[in-house]
Write a structure and sequence with these properties.
Number of strands of chain A: 11
Radius of gyration of chain B: 16 Å
Low-confidence stretches of chain A: none
Mean pLDDT of chain A: 97
Largest sheet of chain B: 3 strands, antiparallel
Largest sheet of chain A: 9 strands, mixed
Structural class of chain B: alpha+beta
Radius of gyration of chain A: 15 Å
Number of helices of chain B: 2
Largest interface: A-B, 17 and 11 residues
Helix content of chain B: 25-40%
Low-confidence stretches of chain B: none
Shape of chain B: elongated
Strand order of the largest sheet of chain A: 2-1-3-4-11-10-9-6-7
Number of helices of chain A: 4
Strand order of the largest sheet of chain B: 2-1-3
Strand content of chain B: 25-35%
Number of strands of chain B: 3
Mean pLDDT of chain B: 93
Order of helices and strands of chain A: EHEEHEHEEEEEEEH
Distance between the termini of chain B: 20 Å
Oligomer: heterodimer
Structural class of chain A: alpha/beta
């Protein structure tokens, strides 16, 4: 399994995403100006502040050349994982439903959260059990998930009771597209791959397709 | 540079009604603390000003980039 990790100007978690992906497969960086994915089997859109979060989080990044390639890749069933800012970018690009709004606290919050896996039928969660809890850090200001409609099985991860610190609708922490090949989540599985930093639960997601 | 035919356009973007606006709420709570009473329904949005040659393109600019129609309403002046 070869992962491509997209780097936009302002990305900041691409190195951890690379390191996490290299624990389960090969991985290389893809620059935002690249118009192809260099044969990647799966793409990770990492966290950070792409294009300075100007205008709206994720709004500018969706127009970069690499996102055209990601869009085609996803429509052909390619595996895409959007983490934090990557989740925001995928929502803005229309590859995932809904949008991310400012936390109800209006504050940047960094903490370990527990999320429950509620859908294990997609490639990114096939290694998990329904109801399994994952301990993963989250760190953001704009992570309040909102969607106008009922998402049904497209809800993949929910914050465990007491862990929905950002005010997300129905405790939603991660959603997939209808086909299930594109997953976005606000917590950072790439920061939970070594017991030295408290948890290896992130590998359950990143390693699942490998 | 403003060309002779350019039209000054202002786009007002605000959170959609019904979506929680914690920024507006924070401002609404802060005003009475300064002695300003009788303020309600405060919402904080964005103002985008632009000079355009063809103002008929502005609605599409709003739909595709300046606003996210899922969560924001926009008004063109």
């Amino acid at each position: 399994m070869r992962f491509g990790v997209v780097q936009f100007p302002g990305s900041c978690d691409e190195r951890d995403a690379l390191a996490a992906a290299r624990r389960v497969g090969d991985a290389e960086l893809l620059w935002h100006g690249d118009a192809d994915l260099r044969g990647a089997d799966a793409v990770i859109i990492p966290g950070g502040f792409s294009y300075g979060d100007y205008l709206r989080v994720g709004a500018i990044a969706r127009f970069s050349p690499v996102m055209g390639a990601v869009d085609r890749f996803a429509s052909e069933g390619g595996l895409v994982l959007g983490i934090c800012n990557g989740f925001q970018v995928l929502c803005e690009a229309g590859l995932l439903p809904g949008a991310l709004l400012p936390n109800t606290s209006l504050r940047f919050t960094c903490r370990q959260v527990e999320v429950e896996v509620v859908n294990t039928s997609i490639p990114w969660t096939r290694g998990c059990e329904v109801g399994q809890r994952l301990s993963i850090p989250a760190k953001h200001t704009t992570g309040r998930y909102w969607s106008p409609g009922d998402l049904g099985d497209q809800v993949v991860l929910r914050y465990a009771p007491g862990h929905n610190f950002n005010g997300s609708m129905n405790d939603i922490a991660g959603v997939c597209n209808e086909a299930g090949n594109v997953l976005g989540l606000m917590p950072h599985p790439e920061h939970a791959v070594d017991i030295l930093t408290g948890s290896v639960d992130g590998l359950a997601l990143i390693g699942a397709p490998a | 540079m403003v060309g002779p035919c350019d039209v000054r356009v202002r786009v007002l973007i605000r959170p959609k009604a019904g979506i929680l606006d914690p920024q507006g709420q924070a401002v609404e709570r802060a005003l009475p603390a300064l002695g300003f009473e009788g303020v309600a329904n405060v919402h904080v949005g964005r103002l985008v000003e632009l000079d355009v040659e063809d103002p008929t393109q502005v609605p599409e600019m709003c739909e595709r980039l300046l606003a996210n129609p899922l969560i924001e309403d926009f008004e063109i002046e």
